[in-house]
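Our consortium's second objective concerns turning raw sequence data into structural hypotheses that experimental partners can test. To show how far this objective has progressed, the report includes one record in full. It was chosen at random from the queue rather than selected for favorable results. The single chain below, 338 residues long, was entered without modification.
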Amino acid sequence: YNRSPGLAFIQAENTNLTWETTTQTDVSLQFGLLDEAITGEIGYFVKETNDLLFAEPIPASSGASSLTKNIGSVENAGVEFQLSIKNINNNNFKWTTDLNVSTLDNKITELPDDDVIGNLNILREGEPINAFYLVEYAGVDPDNGDALFYTNKGTEGETSNDWNDAERVIAGNPFPDLMAGLTNSLSYKQFDLSFSFQGEWGASVFNSAGKFQEANGDWFDNQDRSQLRRWQKPGDITDVPRAELVAGNGTEDSTRYLKSTDYIRLKNLTLGYNVPKKYTDVARISSARVYLSGFNLLTFTDYDGYDPESRSDAGGVGQVFYSAPAAKTIAIGVNLSF
């Protein structure tokens, strides 16, 4: 602005904002069996947060799209379980296993007003925070290839090829309700091996890029291979609508682009060798270890996007947009101690 500073209005003021407040209750039991060969802990927690800070949508005519308010309470409850087992423990061979499992039940317990509805998410009492709130995709009309949507207006199973005829429903949770990890560590003489698996279940993610890469001709991004099974002639049974150039056949926001992110991943694998002391003494070092490590080597999932661990990078909770997958990395290294 001709070298003059300027001001831009980006957020509406709310002078009544306060801190969120949280109370938490934890109950746990620790145990050890067989002379500490098996140890573990099981716990239950309840965490209640009040005066939550949320961006409540407001009319754009006000000059802003949302107003941050303290507008509710949420409860998180779950069970956490940890188990460590010394499977084998002798002079030459050692093998330990560590397991952790946790559950999460997240729900909104209080809202002062009606539902807070966003573009894809909703705040509603009794539902998970930022639950997905979407029109329900019903597949493809086999007669003409039109995308269909469940109307959800009282008649069970009723569908329409007009997205505007359908009512939105609670369709998924952006956060997992079950998480687990498993690590095994083994050593035999100078060699050591460890590998870790992790997994999550119960979460969904909205693939915002789907409207571009599964677009039936709306856009010219590289298309997903699902387009190879698109409807092409009367009688075709498929879930991919007829391709139409810039015609919006089923590319509206719906559960068509909502994906389950259940997965199990080999997060880490490491093989090492500890150089015998007779060689390190010659080199005048106290210890030396060479190792080969791999990260994110394998992922078992039905998720058809790039990465089931993705959660939010598209401006909204649980939304992804061409998210790059976690890098698969292989490293070779040497640890020296002097």
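The partners drew two points from this record. The longest strand covers residues 73-89. The helical segments are 210-213, 277-282. Both points have been shared with the crystallography group to help prioritize constructs.
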